[in-house]
TrEMBL record, chain A:
InterPro entries: DUF5130. It comes from Kribbella steppae. It comes from the Bacteria. This is Uncharacterized protein DUF5130.
Automatic annotation (TrEMBL), chain B:
The chain crosses the membrane at residues 6-30. Keywords: Membrane, Transmembrane, Transmembrane helix. Residues 56-93 are annotated as: Disordered. The keyword Transmembrane helix applies. This is Uncharacterized protein. The keyword Transmembrane applies. Residues 70-93 have a biased composition (Low complexity).
């Protein structure tokens, strides 16, 4: 295989935009890592999550293209907002794209879906005192 | 009877077909040349790791932190965060 970057600048921009939109919609942090794992994928993904600034409120998407493995890890607080079932649905969508070789499309779709599932409706007038 | 092949004949019967073949080949391979190597499941992965929205600042390694004088018995555990309860999903393709 020839050497090169995993994504073109345009593809990177698309993924970053999806991450930004997901963060705005959900209020959580999103992080995407694409690369090989030093060990088993799940423990490696957990290590990556713990390296982040706010792991409890973060959703990490880890993709191992060589091992053909995908891990979505939700932090201790983020998992209250994003259920394992919702993460599984997003994983399914990403898996379909990855199987056809479309890494970028899968990541964009998956992150968008995660952000939508984690979306919380705004609480109107929550900080105002109750008036009789 | 062998007739001599003129330059004009060569141009019409060899040059033009060769040019057409070259143009078609270029049109076929141009997208993959422009986009670079494409990920193909099952083949080896060639690119260095990419971390989008990764850690902004490097956290201090607990092993390198100076020991506090008032707490001789306490030791920092690097894996404490790993034990936190997390959720998520896995998949393979």
């Amino acid at each position: 295989m020839p050497a090169g970057d995993a994504f073109t600048p345009e593809q990177l921009y698309d993924i970053e935009r999806a991450v930004r939109h997901a963060e705005e919609a959900s209020g959580l942090h999103f992080s995407v890592y694409v690369g090989g794992a030093d060990s088993e994928t799940r423990p490696f993904a957990l290590e990556l999550l713990n390296e982040l600034d706010d792991p409890d409120n973060t959703v990490l998407v880890y993709v191992d293209p060589a091992g053909r493995r995908l891990e979505i890890v939700t932090g201790a607080l983020a998992k209250r907002q994003l259920s394992d079932t919702a993460a599984g649905l997003a994983a399914l969508a990403m898996q379909t794209s990855f199987a056809t070789g479309d890494l970028t499309g899968g990541l964009v779709t998956g992150v968008q879906q995660l952000g939508t599932h984690a979306h919380q409706a705004p609480l109107l007038h929550a900080n105002e005192p109750h008036k009789q | 009877m062998i007739t001599e092949v003129s330059g004009h004949t060569l141009l019409v019967f060899v040059g033009i077909p060769a040019l057409v073949i070259a143009v078609v080949a270029l049109l076929v391979f141009a997208p993959s040349i422009a986009n670079g190597p494409r990920y193909r499941p099952g083949l080896s992965w060639w690119a260095p790791p990419v971390w989008i929205n990764g850690p902004t600042a490097t956290k201090p390694d607990p092993a390198n932190l100076p020991e506090l004088p008032g707490a001789p018995g306490t030791t920092a555990s690097a894996g404490a965060g790993v034990a936190r309860s997390t959720g998520g999903a896995s998949a393979s393709w």
